[in-house]
Specification:
Layout lengths: L1 H14 L5 H14 L1 H10 L3 E2 L8 H11 L18 E2 L1
Parallel strand pairs: 1-2
């Protein structure tokens, strides 16, 4: 029941264009996981990522960072992605 309520609330926020920070992180990570063309375009644009206060990075943010810093063709599992040399610093 709680899962359905959470999904319904998420749909209502999307319909009303009232996304919160978590919604944005989830949407961005889903896009980078599922659309390799978008991921590659962003990897070309943002070749190097520097993360200040890395210790405060949460798992959703880590997924975004690792997908952006990964080698092309690394797949969808960010935790197994090979990172491009020098692409991610903290």
């Amino acid at each position: 029941m709680l899962t359905e309520a959470r999904e319904d609330a998420s749909k209502q926020r999307r319909r009303g264009a009232l996304l919160n920070f978590t919604d944005l992180l989830l949407s961005a990570s889903r896009l980078l996981r599922e659309d390799f063309a978008v991921r590659e375009a962003l990897q070309r644009k943002y070749r190097f990522l520097f993360v200040d206060e890395f210790q405060d990075t949460d798992p959703m943010q880590l997924e975004l960072l690792f997908l952006l810093a990964s080698e092309p063709g690394s797949g969808v599992d960010w935790s197994k992605a090979a990172l491009r040399p020098g692409a991610l610093s903290w």
